[in-house]
Amino acid sequence: MTGPKDSNDSQDEGKSNVLDKTISRRDLLRLAGVGGAGLLLGATGVSGLFSAKSRSGVSSAAPTVAANVDQIVSFYGKHQAGITTPAQDFIVFAAFDLTAASLGEVRKLFQDWTQAAATMASGELLGDTNDNLNLPPSDTGEAAGLSPSRTTITFGVGPSFFDGRYGLAGKRPAALVDLPAFGGDELRAEWSGGDIGVQVNANDLQIAFHALRNLARIARGKAVLRWTQEGFQRTSGADPSGATPRNLMGFRDGTGNPDVTDDAEMNKVVWASASDGTAWMSKGSYMVVRRVRMRIEVWDRSTLGDQEATFGRHRASGAPIGAVHETDKLDLDKKDEKGKPVIPMNAHVRLAHGDGSVKILRRSFSYSSGLDNKTGQLDAGLLFIGYNRDSRKQFIPMQQKLGQSDLLNEYIVHTGSAVFACFPGVSEGGYIGETLF
Ligand code: HEM
Q: What is the pLDDT of residue 63?
C-alpha cells in the first residue's frame, strides 16, 4: 500500500480514540432524543456524525479522510464494482449455498449484504459502535483503524439459484449455462459450484477477509459457505509502477485484456444488455471462475524455450515471440526463415486469441494453498476469473479450444469451476438483486 494509508494511520489514531471515547453513537441518540443535539452538534447534525464513524475513526470532513479518497471504490454505480475496476492486490472468493426458507429471506439477505458491503467498501465499521458488554460486537473488529484499501465486493448467482426452491426457475438467464466438460478437467466438488458467488477484493488481505467473514456472519440462517479461495498478486507496494503482474509461471498475465476504459468495448465484451433476452441482467455480467492448479515442479524443470513456446510470449519482456515490447502487436502470421510460425500453432495466446473477434475480460489472481497431501507438492496456481457478456459465445468456445490442444495443458489442471450471473449495480437506497427480485 502506498502513501495515503501510511499517512492516515499515524495521524488518525489519536483523533479516533478521542471521538470513540468522548461520544459514542448511542450517546448521540440519547442526546438527539432530549433535543439537545442541534445545539451540541451544530451544522454536522446527527447523521453526519454517524456516517463519520469511519474505520480510521475520524470525521469524513477531516482532511485525513480526504487523503483516503483514492482508497475508496464506491460500491454504488450502474455496474457492480470489482469487474472493470483495476485489479486490487488480493482476492477472497467465496461461494455460498442458500438455506433460506423463502424468497423473502433471500431478498432480505441481499438487502442486508448490500448495506454491509457499501459500508465496508467505504471503510466504515458495521452497525452501531457497540459498547454493550452483554452483546457480541456488531463488527468483528479486525479492520478497525485500517484504510478502505479499495475494497470491492461483487455478487453473482449460479445456475442452482434458479432450481425451483424460491420460485425463480423461470428467471434463469439463458446465458447462465452450466459449463460443459472440457479436456483436461479434473474438477472437484469442494471447489465447484454454489448458489451465490461473492468476489471480495482489496489491497489488504486482512480487510478482504474481514469483509467476507462479516458477510458470512450476516448470512447466518440464510446461506452457508460452500467453498472459498484466497488469492494474491504482487502488491502495488512492491510495484508502484503498476506494470502487468506476473503469474506463478513467471509470465506477465493480463497484457491481451480488452481496455476497461473503452466503454464501447466493455459493452461488447463484458456487460449484458436487455436485448440479450434477460432484462434483469442488463448492465450485469457473467463471471466464470476456474481454480487452475499449476504443475509447478514440472514447469520448473522445463526449458525457457519451452516455456516461451507454451505461451507464445517472451518471459522477460512479455512481448509476443519475435517482438520486443510487451504491447507489440500479436502477429500470428509471422514466420521464421524456414517458414515456420514464430508463435507455435498450439501456443496459449494463439488459441486464446483466435481471430481476435471473441474476447473476455480476465481478472485472475495467483493462489497458494499449502501442500497437496497425496503428492507432497505445492497446491498453487491461478484462480482464473473471466467476465463476459455471454459465456456460450465467449468463454466456452475459447476454453474448448484451449482444453483440446493448448501447450499449457501439460503444466496445468483445472480443479474447480463455477459460473455466476453478476447483477447490475445499484444506486444508494437500492439493493443488489433488486432487478431480479
Ligand atoms: C493457469 C491457467 C492460465 C495461465 C497461466 C494463463 C496465462 C496467460 C498468459 C501468460 C497470457 C499472455 C499474456 C496476456 O495476454 O495476458 C495469457 C493470455 C490469454 N489467456 Fe490465459 N492463462 C490461463 C488460463 C486461461 C483460460 C482458462 C482462459 C480462457 C478460457 C485464458 C484466456 C486467455 C486470453 C483470452 C488471453 C489473451 C490472448 C490475446 O492476446 O488475445 N487463459 N494467458
A: 36
